[in-house]
Amino acid sequence: MKLTIELMKRLSLYLFLILFALQAPSQADDIRDFQIEGISIGDSLLDFFSRKEIIDNINSESTFEYKDRKFVQIGTSKNSFEIYEIVGLIIKPNDKDFIIYGISGQFSFGDEIEKCYTKQNTISKDIDDLVGENTKKIEWDAKYKQDATGKSKVKYIDYQFKDSSEIRIICYDMSKDFHDPNDALYVAVNSIEFSEFLINL
Fold first, then answer.
1. Of 10, 12, 89, 170, which is most buried, counting CB atoms within 10 Å of its CB?
2. Do residues 76 and 1 lie in contact, with contact meaning Cβ atoms separated by under 8 Å?
3. Contact, 74 vs 64, CB < 8 A?
């Protein structure tokens, strides 16, 4: 599969690991103004993949299925990505247009969780300067539900837009005993519909 980067549609907001460079107006109130690897909420996945590639990915064992298979997440890891190591794309598997409802980018940190927290805060400070007054910022911690031992932890910084869409910056502090002990940072951009779906899970 080859993921191409489309020309910037409305404005560009790229979330960098080393240098958090932003191109946006002084205030961004629409979740579609934010991009990850040139991809925005509301784009069609057909702009980046062939229909066959999408269907093959939907049927892949590595694709994550949400409750009642309303949404699936296709994970892609490509050398062509400019910033992120892995990009996840949320779509409805039965949507013929394969509209994108959520996008996430991932960085790995091994066992260096403090570096993850540092980058999380850097990204958060830059987003603070972009979002409008109607955006609510929430910081919270939780245990990672998939780790039955309760040793793995998650730190969230969420930006909730007035229309319920959101940006999430998440650090996963994984236990060394967990089957995947790698600490990681996720930056997620979620549409209104997908955000509300997650709340009601």
1. 89
2. yes
3. no
CA atoms of 181 and 175, how far apart (whole Å): 6
Taking the CA atoms of 51, 52, 53 and 56 in sequence, report the sign of the dihedral they define: positive
Q: Is the pTM of this model over 0.90?
A: no
Range list of H helices, 2-138: 51-58, 113-128
Closest CA to 170 of 141, 135, 128: 141
Q: Which residue has the tokens 């400070």?
A: 125
Segment 107-134, tens digit of pLDDT = 999 999 999 999 999 999 989 988 877 7
Q: Which residues pair with 54 in a beta bridge?
A: none
pLDDT digits (tens, 9 = 90+) for 66-87: 999 999 999 887 667 888 888 9
